[in-house]
Design a protein that fits this description.
The protein is mainly alpha-helical and about 220 residues long. The protein has 8 helices and no strands. Helix 2 runs antiparallel to helix 3, helix 5 packs across helix 6 and helix 5 crosses helix 8.
């Protein structure tokens, strides 16, 4: 746990030392949401609100998680190799990205609702969906960022690889979130919540199991 916490702490310190990454995500969210407001200039239906929110958040998450291994040059990989186990490194990165993406999701939904209206009938269910989405997204996108780092930090690679891998989660998320906007029943939607939680767990386990092989390369 100490090693994982040190990785999380180090990631925050590195990102905070170059705060432009935080501001770039902030500007992206503000500009896209404001542009959506200018285009529609009216209160969206719950279905349109749901679709636009997940499109904006998805690309914000890809952009945010792309920097997971931005600071890890070859020499720093060698430093990590003697400092921490690969399992601890990937878990620390995933935990950091989880909190990062959850903050981005909450901010995006808040600003989106401020400009486009709040059609959320069940806020507790919507926050639960955002939490599970952030966990699943952070697991997949962190692994994809590691692959991209090994391939020379190709900026196109995360978007190309992550969208197909996130497709099952996006389908489940869209179904659950639209129900949280129009009226949510925990009993009826329990199965979908379990499916979403299992998808996030499988993504976490895949990253945990596959990253050591990528690490040895």
């Amino acid at each position: 746990m100490k090693a994982i916490f040190r990785v999380v702490q180090l990631n925050f310190q590195l990102e905070w030392s170059e705060r432009r990454s935080y501001f770039s995500i902030l500007i992206y969210v503000l500009s896209t949401v404001y542009l959506s407001n200018l285009v529609f200039n009216e209160i969206l239906s719950p279905e349109s609100w749901n679709a636009f929110f997940w499109v904006i958040f998805l690309f914000a998450a890809v952009q945010a998680a792309y920097r997971s291994f931005y600071f890890e040059a070859d020499q720093r990989f060698l430093l990590y190799y003697g400092w921490v186990k690969p399992e601890h490194l990937i878990l620390g990165k995933i935990i950091y990205n989880f909190f990062y993406l959850l903050a981005v999701a909450l901010f995006t939904s808040g600003f989106f609702g401020f400009l486009m209206g709040f059609p959320i009938a069940s806020p507790g269910a919507f926050i639960t969906v955002l939490t599970l989405a952030s966990l699943g997204f952070s697991s997949i996108l962190t692994l994809v960022a590691a692959i991209s780092a090994k391939a020379g930090n190709n900026p196109a690679l995360p978007a190309i690889l992550s969208i197909p891998l996130l497709y099952p989660q996006i389908l489940t998320l869209s179904k659950l979130s639209i129900r949280s906007l129009t009226g949510f029943s925990w009993e009826i939607n329990a199965q979908l919540l379990i499916v979403l939680a299992l998808l996030a767990l499988v993504s976490l386990l895949l990253s945990f199991l596959l990253f050591p092989y990528l690490w040895r390369d």
